[in-house]
Amino acid sequence: MAVSNNTLNNDFILIGLSKDPQLKIVLFVLFSCVYMTTLTGNSILILLTRVIHELSTPMYTFLFSLSLLDVCFTSVTVPKMLTSLLVEISYISFSDCITQLYFFHFLGSSECFLLSIMGYDRFVAICNPLRYTQIMSKTLCIKLVSGCWLTGLFYSLVHTLMTAGLSYCGSKEVNHFFCDMPPLLKLSCSDTKTNLIVILGLGGLAAGASFLLTVISYVFIISTILRIRSTKGQQKAFSTCASHLLVVLIFYGTIVFMYLRPESSYSLEHDKMLSVLYNVITPMLNPLIYSLRNKEVKLAFRKLCKKWHRK
Questions:
Q1: In the predicted model, is pLDDT for residue 83 greater than 90?
Q2: What is the CATH number of the domain that holds 177?
């Protein structure tokens, strides 16, 4: 992998979200609270799914993995973003920048694949309830989760190696609050056409396949729900997948607007706002959506609190 000396000898400068000192303080306080809420909410879900026996079903095995991904995903970018809000100039070395890029796409793509698997899990639960435990065995769940992580690992590796192999011999100011492909490609003095093709091609294939699997799952789910005669039965069936459906809509909505569009429509300022949504806000919303709309999680939390109170 050929990397120019100019790239290796100079740090990048992260422009961040704002240059206004007063606004930076406000943003620091706001996003610090959001980050702590994200860590707390996802950590509670991780603890509940490991400690409470009632949450040892396949659905909560996937939810455990989702919460773990969210904790890691937001921790790749948010701490550096918070640090940059406290200093006048935020430097990041080339190696740290590439490392951040790798883990950001590794964890993000793994979550994309996991959400499609969770959609399949809801399909089996609603469309084949009598065979659910037989189909979604513990062994299969572990294989599916491992497959999501491994696929994300190789997916990110391709993008990272291609981005690291470019030359950065001009401006070192990354117009973002973390190292991502679009702003880095803007800085490169190499030909980035191949990179853009791979972003649209490989990214479209990965996100498209995952989204297609999710859509197919929900076509069968909705079809099955509509055949249920009682309104109460329909509501009960839909409630088991409503949380996942909401998370999917938020996740894929931001991904499509961020990466799967022509180069001419890229706006780094606009992209920064979208990045805040799926980097900072979405990982905070996921545990809230699953806990506020899920009676089993609420009961498990009360049970855990009673255990701690007795101690």
A1: yes
A2: 1.20.1070.10
Q: 74, 279 in Cβ contact below 8 A? A: yes
pTM for this entry: 0.86
- Supply φ then ψ for residue 173, to 5 degrees: -90, 110
Span 190-228, pLDDT tens digits: 888 888 888 888 877 888 888 889 889 989 998 988 888
Left if phi > 0, otherwise alpha if psi is -120 to 50, otherwise beta: which for 136? beta
Quick check: 65 and 45 in contact, CB under 8 A? no
How far from the centroid of its chain's Cα atoms is residue 158's Cα? 18
Domain count, the chain: 1
Report percent pLDDT > 70 for the chain: 89
In three-state secondary structure terms, 263 is helix
Question: Could you tell me the strand order of the sheet in which 90-92 lies?
Answer: 90-92, 12-14, 173-174
CA 138 vs. chain centroid, Å, equals 24
Cα separation, 245 vs 267, in Å, equals: 29
158 CB neighbour count, 10 Å cutoff: 12
User: How far apart are alpha carbons 189 and 191 in whole angstroms?
Assistant: 7
Residue 14 pairs in a beta bridge with: 90, 174
Q: Which domain holds residue 132?
A: 5-310
- Give how far the C-alpha of residue 68 lies from the chain's centroid of Cα atoms, to the nearest Å: 10
pLDDT tens per residue, range 226-278? 888 888 878 877 877 877 888 888 877 776 666 555 555 556 666 777 788 88
Q: In 3D, which of 305, 258, 249 has the Cα closest to residue 282?
A: 249
Q: Is the Cα dihedral 71, 111, 279, 31 positive or negative?
A: negative
